[in-house]
Amino acid sequence: MSTNIRSSNGVTAPNTPNPKSPSSGKDKEKEKEKEKDKDLDGEFIEGDLNDFNAPEPGSSYRETPLAQHSRSWTAEGKVAEEDNTNFESPVETKEDPTLNIDDSEATKGDLSKTRKYANEDVTSANWALHKKHVFVLSNSGRPIYSRYGDEQQLSTFMASLNTIMFFVESMDDTLRYVCAGEHKFVFLKAGPLYLVCVARTNEPHSHLAHQLHYMHAQIISILTQSSVTKIFKQSAKFDLRKLLGGTDRFLDSLMVSMDHDASMMLDSIHCLRLPSSIRSQVGSILAGVRPNQDLLFSIVMAGHQLVNMSRPRRFALTPQDLHLIMNFVFSSASFRAASESWTPICLPDLDENGFLHMYVCYLSDEICLALISMKLEDFYRLSECKVQIEKELRAGNTAIGSSQGIPPSVSSSVMDGITEALAHQHYSVAEIGIPSLLHFLYKSQSTSQFTTPKFDPPYTTLKERKRLFRLYQAIQVRVKPSGGKPHKVYYHVSQSETVVGWVTSGFELYATFGPLESKPMAIKACNQLLRWIKQEENNLFILNSPVW
Question: Which residues are paired to 490 by β-bridges?
Fold first, then answer.
């Protein structure tokens, strides 16, 4: 099956002979070269790109462009006009007048917002002042994404980055990073894409490379690896921005999250602190509503945290895939504006070469339900599932205990229980009862889940919180050196604080104390902290998510 990647007006360039074409052999060859160049410039490509859901005979509606990332389904209206690359669906909908795609004003406004630093380039005074730049380009030097500035205006700069990487590759070597004064240049080659981070944040190069891997995974979640490979195999100079247009906000949001979210640093997922009884009820409801075998994952999220999920026994979502889902859902205003949304998504750790299809619905301002299916035509089935799940979440009585620092009360429903837990999600180190403890990060190795308290004094300012986060990054690199033997316990002392890094097969712990804390006392306090986490683990973590 073949498909066409259309030009911006949505019309495939006709493959008709040029009436002015000269008849001589040389001129014909030149004309062929011109046509080839036309393809390389990305105006259109013909080929077998099955991953793009090419149009089938009998198709009767169009999906909104991948640039919009979601389809909002409403009971009235008409199919919206498209002005970008179109991907038609093979689903037959002629007999259903209620199926419509609504490009609402909220969605359009969200896509048309100008990025804060979009007009900057290398000549702008402010451009060089940003502490962390991220660039994505193709291996032919075509600009794809820049965290700050306009990609087209930065094309010369990106071409220089491409030349550097190509030069090193020509010597049969791989460029990892370069230190130049206070700047680190970190490079990642991922298939036909090059990703470069230029930072002066004092972050270890391994953490910057880790962030580039996340950025690449976010791009793959939009297009799939096989599609990206096929595109650049057919046309090395193809402008990938035509397929990624409007998705900058997902990449921008991901970079912001990685600058402060310790769960991404630790390759773990942050679970909402929730009474175990409520979490179990959520899991039972999700597991009890399954229309067919094609529904793979049912996920309830609240405020960028995982509440619970159900999944097939043979498949599991990695922390990276869950972070991509959360970033995808919570960083788009169009999902919040629409009552229901239906979008393709690729989960790279599960299968980087294929799309799944995700139904998204906000049950409240911060509580979201995501249902992920293998079938494109499952929208209506999943919509019915959502109605049943929401009905059960809003029914019944759920007692919320006070053992977690949440005021004891009786909620009228599971939803109320989640809402109340979300309002009290940030616990203090004072609850733990260790006077010398200032802050900590804890990851369970068996579940890849993470917990941390809120920031208390002296970490009340953004500057202090950022400094502590950078310190955690530096200590993690020392505790778990790349290619070296990890240290079981690492003890760091400075003028501001004492930090103990402790890594075992069961947990990864980074605990912060005052600068005068002795090593024996710090170890004793860590053991107290571990006992408290053990007592609270049913409320802090998902220990028994339902599987089938």
Answer: 501
Asked if 268 contacts 166 with a C-beta cutoff of 8 angstroms, the reply is no
Structure tokens at 500: 């103990």
The gap from C-alpha 350 to its chain's centroid, in whole angstroms, comes to 14
Record the pTM: 0.78
**Phi, psi (rounded to 5 degrees) for 362:** -85, 120
For the stretch 82-117, pLDDT in tens is 333 333 333 322 333 222 223 333 333 343 346 778
| E strands in 51-207 | 62-63, 71-74, 87-88, 100-101, 132-138, 143-146, 177-180, 183-190, 193-199
State the burial class of residue 496 (Cβ atoms within 10 Å of its Cβ: 0-12, 13-18, 19+).
Answer: middle
Q: Are β-strands 341-345 and 356-362 bridged in parallel, bridged antiparallel, or unpaired?
A: antiparallel
Q: How far apart are CA 52 and CA 212, in angstroms?
A: 25
Tens of pLDDT along 207-232?
Answer: 999 999 999 999 999 999 999 999 99
Q: What is the pLDDT, as a whole number, of residue 251?
A: 94
Report how far residue 62's alpha carbon sits from residue 64's, in angstroms, rounded to the nearest whole number. Answer: 6
